[in-house]
Amino acid sequence: MATTSKRRGSEKVMAAWKARTLSEASVKEIGSALDKSPAAIEGATFVGGENPTGLRLSLAYEGDDGPWCGNDILFWLKWHLTHGGNPRPPRIIINGIPFPELVRVELDFGTVAEQLPSLEDVAGEIAVAGLRG
Q1: What is the three-class DSSP state of 92?
Q2: Beta partners for residue 43, in sequence order
């Protein structure tokens, strides 16, 4: 029985090792889902160099397409249940309340490490807050 336990443990470790990068099949699954969505892709960035670990997408929905963002978020959740990764909550920006004219959604697939702010970003935040040296 100890042999079976070791094998199962090593299989889990190997599965985690393989899941650290995006597979071609998992990326094709994302592309197929986006083909069905009315969202306009404003940006797509792979993270992780030669062996990408994540994909950051920026999607826009105009007018009556706004409710579709819920379907795309549901796909995003199901994708992570299947493929793993370290999902961050989606970032949603709505322009026009109570009737949205434009909805923007940013989704991270896989593991997208948080980027540290640049010096310019920090200086801009200090200037907006009114702090001066």
Answers
A1: strand
A2: 58
Query: Would you give the end-to-end CA distance of the chain in angstroms?
Result: 67
- CA 59/CA 2 separation, integer angstroms: 49
Domains defined along the chain, listed by start: 22-129 (3.30.70)
How many angstroms separate the Cα of 101 from the Cα of each of 66, 97, 106?
8, 8, 17
Cis previous bond, 98, omega within 30:
yes
pLDDT at residue 82 is higher than 50: yes
Is pTM, for the whole model, over 0.70?
Answer: no
Each residue of 3-34: pLDDT tens digit?
555 556 677 676 666 666 788 899 999 999 99
The angle subtended at Cα 51 by Cα 46 and Cα 56, nearest 5°, is 15
